[in-house]
Amino acid sequence: MPEARIEFRNVTKRFPAKGRGEPDVLAVRNVTISIADGEVVALIGPSGCGKSTLLNMGSGLYLPTEGTVEVDGTRVDGPNRHVAFMLQKDLLLPWRSIRENAELGLEIRGAPAAERRERAMSLLAKCHLSGFEHHYPHQLSGGMRQRAALARTLAVDPAVLLMDEPFSALDAQTKMVLQQDLAETLAAERKTALLITHDLVESIALSDRVYVMSERPGTIIEEIVIEIPGREDPMRRRRDPRVGAYVAELMSLLHVGERKEAA
Amino acid sequence: MLGVLRGSTATASLAVLVAFLAAWEWLPALAGIPEFILPPPSRVWQEFLRMSANERLWYHSGITSMEVVVGFLLGSLLGIVIGFVLGMAPRAELVLSPYILALQIAPKVAFAPLFVMWLGYTVYPKILVAVLIVFFPVMVNVLTAVRTVDPDMVNLARSFSATRWQVFRMIEYPASLAPLFSGLRIAATLAVIGVVVGELVGGNLGLGYLLTYGEGQGNTAMVFVTIILLTFIGIVAYAGVVLVERRVLHYMPKAQHATV
Fold this sequence. Notes:
The complex is a heterodimer of chains A (263) and B (260). Chain A is of the alpha/beta class and 263 residues long. Helices cover 33% and strands 24% of the residues of chain A. Chain A is built from 9 helices and 10 strands. In chain A, α6 links the parallel β7 (160-164) and β8. Chain B has a single domain, classed as Orthogonal Bundle (MetI-like fold), CATH 1.10.3720.10. Helix content of chain B is 79%, strand content 0%. The A-B interface holds A 56, 59-61, 78-81, 83-85, 87, 89, 91, 93-97, 104-105, 107-109, 136, 138, 156 and B 150, 152-153, 155-162, 166, 170-171, 174-175, 177, 249, 251-253.
């Protein structure tokens, strides 16, 4: 395996119990994930399996109880310059214009105004938001807002992008367009990304590999390499006949449809 | 209100006012209610002119307005500062919360006699009542706002390695502005109440004093004039807050700009 860009090594996370006398909550258990430079990896699992906990540890917001997270061989012990995250919620600040929102990370890191402005404008253009730089978030559609969030994430030029169901709040068609844009951008910029999702087809269409997690306490139960060419073109990948076989494999791993009466 | 009413709505509102004034002018006389109980608008207007000339009405109005403005500003400032401090120090808030609650429940205007005893028949006890009554809605709104900031927004800033001060300046403070202004609107009307109660209790300054003076004289029209002027001061204070709010919260969707 080539040098890992980001690596979760035997990571376990426990949260303190809420009530007295209750046991600690084990969110994730012994997770090992390794993502090479330029690779896009999806992480899929049932809801509540600790996917988001992993993402928070990747961005340094939580520290693992056991094990380590490393980016470029350096241990992650707090928020750092190498990792940026993007959530289902766009988290655009309503009091900032779209351009000012895209500049947020650069502004926090102390970049000069002219430089961050230029960078924000060029990324917004890449994210098809030219002409909306001076709008406020409430004036934009859900898809456009998520594009702005992507521009904000890319603006800090992170080594690794961590994405937690970034498209799950969008309607089906907007979602496909944004997936396409994301895949093209990731390929063009040669970005490394961990994409958490519960959408089986999304995980297959967008990534090089898929990790499957078990129910809580979550651990990796399977790793599937997606052997369909053209990761930068998920629209085309979706039409590939092999997608069906991957979906079937993921469904059986996740026990989808086995408890019919429970649904 | 204020520039929102347009066309037919404004006409209808005006019609209601005219109908109300007409009813007030003529109905009490028809019902045999004497003028010293319910003076008609024309009588109130005459009294207004008399008071302007002989009772230093504008001087007293000016004193009351000044007390309202100073009390509102000091009380709001105090509420904002304490609200942010407690909002960012959850432990301190937990320790202090029973006392804050007790003070919040205590009827603030009941402190007026105490303040007059402490500070004499000056403008200060009136301002102090206003400060006390304005403080709570502002502090509680700021405190709640800081507490309910989306933790993911804070995490977003933290993921960019934001310092505590940057999180406050870029996330918590701007996120608190909308609730702060709802608190300030309430505070603007409460400030007038606080000042008037202070003036009623003691001294010979302000519209509250004119109220008791008119009452002592059995001059109903004088009381009416004073009530109307107090209401006017309240409206101006409220409108002032709304005006500033519109400038500061210009990024808000228009629908959230409910005026009342």
